[in-house]
Specification:
Largest sheet: none
Helix content: 55-70%
Radius of gyration: 24 Å
Number of strands: 0
Structural class: mainly alpha
Oligomer: single chain
Strand content: under 5%
Length: 84
């Protein structure tokens, strides 16, 4: 269903027919065939926009460096204890 939304029903049906003739099965193979046949930039659906502008704000991406530092610091401590 998602492939039909992106590429159109007629194109997907044609691609399924070609894939079956070649003995190719699987949705991921079908998607790859469709991708090769179409200009990918042309078939990208537009981004979702909502009526309330407050909801169209891109999500905040947290900085996880402090968590990484804790994780790596903990690993170093465990390695030192194992050496003893």
């Amino acid at each position: 269903m998602a492939l039909i939304t992106v590429y159109g029903a007629q194109s997907v049906e044609s691609c399924i027919e070609d894939a079956l003739k070649k003995g190719i099965i699987g949705a991921h193979h079908l998607e790859r065939l469709l991708w090769r046949k179409h200009d990918v930039e042309h078939v990208k659906p537009p981004p979702l926009t909502l009526r309330d502008d407050r909801l169209n704000i891109p999500p905040h991406i947290p900085n996880l460096k402090s968590y990484d530092a804790l994780l790596f610091d903990n690993d170093d401590n465990e390695n030192e204890e194992m050496k003893k």
